[in-house]
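Fill-in record for Sulfite oxidase-like oxidoreductase.
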Amino acid sequence: MAFFGRSGPRDERLPPGQYDTGSSFPVLTAEVSPKIKPEEWSFRIDGLVDSPQTWDWKGVHALGRSTYEGDIHCVTTWSKLGTSFTGVSLDPLLELSGVKPEATHAVCWSHTGYTTNLPLEHITGGKAWLVWDHEGHPLPPEHGGPVRMLVPHLYFWKSTKWIGGIRLLDHDEPGFWEVRGYHMLGDPWKEQRYDGD
Ligand SMILES: Nc1nc2c(c(=O)[nH]1)N[C@H]1C(S)=C(S)[C@@H](COP(=O)(O)O)O[C@H]1N2
Ligand SMILES: [Mo]
């Protein structure tokens, strides 16, 4: 019997109900795209942590560099296969903040005010990044540059553009799209598009 994993043929890499958008990279933004200069950008971790931390552009670059190579899936049904983003894993930033044991969820917020919620175990263990390059070029402003979140195993609305920070909570709290009926988790392989899926 043939077995195809998520790195197999393109068809096998498409979650249910998704199509391959090829080389295009659609822009989906609810707000007006801000123009944030790298030297003006900052990222904060606070809430249920031992010591709230803020990093600037140089600070996050000093924490390491890794590249995600793989697929992304938007709830509007496009998937982009075999793309790449470079940045830093969220793990060292969370470790430096000292996440308290009672923390179970995170709300990611954008400098624009956009928010989205994630269970803590979905942004730890090498599953989430802050990214500033896309396919070897600086992340364009319309795609969330200078720095966005990347949580590629969930639908792309969970990947906050113009990321400003993460607040750790001891409960789940719906973000911008979640209060408008989107799923609290958003696993594309379980087709968790809307509340109740
Ligand atoms: N700040 C912010 N982040 C956001 C959004 C947004 O409107 N504002 N849209 C989300 C949605 S619905 C998707 S599909 C992706 C789109 O990212 P892209 O425009 O780079 O394709 O960003 C997510 N992050
Ligand atoms: Mo989306």
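KEY FINDING: Residues 26-31, 74, 110, 112, 114, 143-144, 156-157, 159-162 surround MTE (ligand 1) (CB under 6 Å).
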